[in-house]
Amino acid sequence: MDDAPETPRSADDPAPAIADDVVPGHADDVRAASTDGPSRTVADDWQTRRLHQRFGRFRVGIGVVVVSFWIVAPNMPSSAVRDRLDHLWEPAVGVGLVQDWAVFSPNPRSQSIDVRARLDYADGTIDFWDVPEFGPGIGAFRQYRWNKWQERVRLDERNEYWAPTAEWIAEQNVRDGEEPARVTLIRRWIDHEPLTADGPSVNVGWNEFEFFVWERDA
User: Fold this and answer.
1) Sign of the C-alpha dihedral, residues 19, 21, 24, 27?
2) Rounded Cα distance, 36 and 41, in Å
3) Which pTM was predicted?
4) Count of C-beta atoms within a 10 Å radius of residue 62
5) How far apart are CA 49 and CA 57, in angstroms?
6) How many helices and strands (H and E) does the chain possess?
7) Is 207 helix (H, G, I), strand (E, B) or coil?
8) What is the per-residue pLDDT across 151-166, written as a single tens digit (0 to 9) for each?
9) Where are the beta strands (DSSP E) in 34-162?
10) 126 and 182 in contact (C-beta within 8 Å)?
11) Can the peptide bond before residue 106 be classed as cis, meaning omega within 30 degrees of 0?
C-alpha cells in the first residue's frame, strides 16, 4: 500500500520547534536533519550536550583553573608561602604539567657542570676525553643532546650507566690497536657567585671528583 502524499506546508505554518540545547547558530543544521532524513548534528555530540548543561560548564571551568594553577604556581619566587603550597602541584609532576623555569632569571643555575674521562694506557701515558663540541646550525642540536646527557650520567641515581659509558669511551679511543687499560669518569663543576656592583666574580677553576673507575680485563 502506497503512503499518502505529504501535504505541503504553507508559508504561514510555523517552523518546527528547535530544541533548547541546540548550539546558537546551528539551528539550520537541525532543520536540515528533519527534512533530509536522519543525520548527526552538532546537538547530537555528547561533548556539546555537556557544555550546554550547567554542571558540564562548571566542570570545564574547574579544569581550566586547576591546570592554570599547576602551570603558573610552581614558578612563584621562593618563599615560605610557596613551600606551604608545594604539595598542591605534586599531581601535576606525575602527568608532566609542571613547567619549571627556574633555570632562567631571577634564579639562574649557580653551577657550570661537566663530565670528563681520564684514559690510562698500558704504556703509562694518559689522555683525556671530553664531550664533543659541534658547530652552529644542526650541530647545536647535537651539542644540546650531549649536554643533557652529561647532566644526567654524572648523577648517583644513574650509576647503571657508568660502566657502559666508560666501556664506550674506551672503544672510541683505541690507540695502536689497544684500548685504554683504565677509564676514570670525573665530575667537574664551577660554583658561580652572583654578580655584584664590582663586576663579575673571579673564575676559581673547576672542582673535580672521580666517581667511577673502569678497568680492562687482563
Assistant:
1) negative
2) 12
3) 0.52
4) 10
5) 10
6) 7, 4
7) strand
8) 999 999 999 999 999 9
9) 111-120, 126-130
10) no
11) yes
